[in-house]
Amino acid sequence: MSIADNLSAIHERIAVAAKRAGRNADDIALMTVSKTQPVAKIIEAYEAGQRLFGENRVQEFSEKVGALASLSDAHFHMIGHLQSNKAPKAAEVFNAVDSLDSAKLAERLNTAAENLGKTLDILIEINVGGEEAKSGLVPDSSELERIFAGAPAWTHLRVRGLMTVPPFTDDPEGARPYFRQLRELRERIAARDLPSIKLDVLSMGMSHDFEVAIEEGSTCVRIGTAIFGTRPKL
Ligand SMILES: *Cc1c(COP(=O)(O)O)cnc(C)c1O
Predict the structure, then answer these.
(1) What would the pLDDT profile of 173-190 be if each residue is shown by its tens digit?
(2) Separation of 204 CA from ligand 1 center, angstroms?
(3) What's the Cα-to-Cα distance from 169 to each of 154, 173, 176, 185, 206, rounded to whole Å?
(4) What spacing in Å lies between the alpha carbon of 170 and ligand 1's midpoint?
(5) pLDDT tens, position by position, 139-176
(6) What structural domains and CATH numbers belong to the chain?
(7) Ligand 1 pocket, 225 CB below 6 A?
(8) Are 48 and 70 contacting, i.e. CB atoms less than 8 angstroms apart?
(9) Ligand 1 center from residue 153 Cα (angstroms)
(10) pLDDT > 70: what percent of the chain?
(11) 78 lines ligand 1 (CB under 6 A)
């Protein structure tokens, strides 16, 4: 199967899951996760019509970005943990950061974006499973409140929604309660009508569980393996 074939197969599965959930497939974005993949594969996906990509390391993507300059309408989002000292480089190479997990990082990204004369789209990463080893903010944490409080001043960031990576379970159904938790958190925050916090995006669902995520309200599924195959070891 080529990357183009895999992309159409995933689009088809997104459509089926959306239909089952009574949703419009156009409301669900497909992000291809190209971390560890060589530039040639990203270009192959682009030529098959793909425009939205996720990468998880600033250093790795910085090395690839030059060779991707001609894909001017492609969007690259940072989806991995981002240390705040790498905020300037991340703001330079990415269109969006989907893994915001501290007010300090937001502050640094805002300054960096301002210096570059650009605005970054932002998702707040939520650690719904409360797992120690995972990044992201615990729902209802004080750090999350600091982000809400700081957001009006970050004029070069646009907070668009929430992202999560639930605890891994072999059975995709195991992720459902976590996806639901993210949706419910979104509803609780939305009810507060906070200035500067838009919550249109719920980024959840990966290769093995994206259909369940769509049933629970995902508006962006992040798919790596099911499009590019098993990731090469770096
Ligand atoms: C790697 C990664 C994905 C894609 O995972 P697959 O199982 O390969 O689809 C999605 N989201 C994040 C945050 C990732 O790091």
Answers:
(1) 999 999 999 999 999 999
(2) 10
(3) 37, 8, 10, 21, 12
(4) 15
(5) 989 999 999 999 999 999 999 999 999 999 999 999 99
(6) 3-228 (3.20.20.10)
(7) yes
(8) no
(9) 31
(10) 100
(11) no
**Ligand 1 neighbourhood includes 161 CB (under 6 angstroms):** no
Asked whether 80 lines ligand 1 (CB < 6 A), one says: yes
Q: How far is the CA of 198 from the centre of ligand 1 (A)?
A: 24
Both tokens assigned to 76: 């690259």
What confidence tier does 234 reach under pLDDT thresholds 50, 70, 90? low
| Minimal-distance CA residue to ligand 1 atom 6 | 224
CA of 33 to the centre of ligand 1 (A): 6
CB 222 near ligand 1, within 6 Å: yes
